[in-house]
Design goal:
The chain has 309 residues and is α/β, with parallel strands linked by helices. The protein contains 8 helices and 14 strands. The termini are far apart. The structure holds 3-methylcatechol (MBD) and fe (iii) ion (FE).
Length: 309
């Protein structure tokens, strides 16, 4: 297409009408966003000579994304979820709210309302043999003071790289728990070593990644929400050392401070002290959270999540 009509007065007027700029009803914010999106879209169509065939392919792609519930996966894969972290990091830097464990993306696979227990929990239901994992650590503030009664909300994949709820073969809340820290800020749990995640190979996200010449793999990782009264909510993950995709994560979540050393051991004296036999793994990881008096900063950002009220 060689005709460029997007910048004409009549098209610009038409986009104002289509985005509701010429009426008094609806939401001013939504109108502003849609107006801008329409203006940028027609400019892209013009500048890049988008053909009607390409346009309808894109429309159908949205339908495929929705049908497979992969919109959240796609925004992680094209780096937009990580971009939001970069924006929040820059805002924090400007406001002097720095220090502590860095944030990284939540991803699309959190489920609200996991079982809550004090100090310790077992995350796995025993159905997945895997390598037994013992993880522990402390929640502290920026002065190193323990944060008692913090909630460590943890979730991770099984040895097949899939998550309970989204993988109907797993039991309810498998590999998902909320653990309240003790008076010294300590938490600990028993679980199984997760495998890395791979995008569904037949899904729309992987289909796009193929077109970009990219893979859809994540290194093995464990997600955390850390929250406590008087402290800033933290959304983060640890990535396990020694993983193939550790610095090649398709969702760009890896940060140096979030690489956790995983130690595999066959020491049967230690194994017995844990009440297990054979090979097992250990991770020690402390979280440092910022103090805040602001209530809004103490809870996770609003977002549609599975089972969240
Ligand atoms: C995951 O497990 C994940 O954490 C992200 C960000 C995207 C896809 C799968
Ligand atoms: Fe994940």
């Amino acid at each position: 297409m060689t005709v460029k009509i997007s910048q004409t007065e009549s098209v610009q007027q038409f986009l104002k009408e289509a985005s509701g700029q010429l009426n008094d009803a609806g939401s001013p914010r939504v109108k502003t966003l849609i107006h801008r999106i329409l203006k940028d879209t027609v400019k892209i169509i013009d500048d890049l000579n988008v053909t009607p065939e390409e346009f309808w392919k894109a429309v159908n792609y949205f339908n495929e994304l929705g049908a497979r519930q992969e919109a959240g996966l796609l925004v992680a894969g094209v780096g937009l979820e990580h971009y939001l972290d970069l924006v929040m990091d820059a805002e924090d830097e400007e406001a002097g709210k720095t220090g502590g464990t860095p944030r990284t993306i939540e991803g699309p696979l959190y489920v609200a309302g996991a079982p809550l227990s004090k100090n310790e929990a077992r995350l796995d239901d025993g159905a997945d043999a895997g390598t037994v994992l013992f993880m522990k650590g402390q929640v502290k503030d920026l002065d190193g003071k323990p944060v008692a009664n913090a909630i460590v909300d943890v979730w991770h994949a099984n040895t097949g790289g899939t998550y309970s709820y989204f993988d109907p073969a797993q039991s309810e809340f498998n590999l998902r728990r909320r653990i309240e820290t003790d008076a010294e800020g300590n938490y600990r749990f028993r679980s199984i070593v997760p495998s890395g995640y791979g995008c569904p190979p037949d899904g729309p996200t992987q289909k796009l990644l193929d077109q970009l010449g990219r893979h859809g793999q994540r290194p093995a990782h464990i997600h955390f929400f850390i929250s406590a009264p008087g402290h800033r909510h933290l959304t983060t993950q640890i990535n396990l050392s020694g993983e193939q995709y550790l610095y090649d994560d398709f969702a760009y979540a890896t940060r140096d401070e979030l690489v956790a050393e995983i130690r595999f051991s066959e020491d049967q004296v230690v194994a017995r002290s844990y009440g297990v036999e054979g090979r097992f793994a250990e991770i020690d990881f402390d979280f440092a959270v910022q103090s805040t008096a602001q209530a809004a900063e103490q809870s996770r950002m609003e977002r549609v999540r599975a089972l969240e009220d």
